[in-house]
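Repro:
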Amino acid sequence: MSAALGASAQLVLVFGANEILKIPEPLQDVRKVYPDAHLLGCSTAGEILDTQVSDNSLVTTAVQFEYTQINTAGSVSMQSAAAVFWLALLWRNLSLQKIWCMSLSSRME
């Protein structure tokens, strides 16, 4: 894992196989390399790094913004698109400019 940004990274996108994400050590290693970053990620059915596709691995992308501040409002597990919509309504008064919702599968109703 390259630590080019290290402590200056504000956001780290983490994509990995279910089996890897269930083990605490890989995410602890990501946290050590990027101690101040917000981690955001999901499980995948294949991880892409450069031009290679791998299985049973973990891929990270670290981002540093020049003018943007990142804040995490919360994390929840949703079972339907209606629940995601409800969450957006609850957060509408928080002066958020963007709400990013990720689906764990294509089976959302």
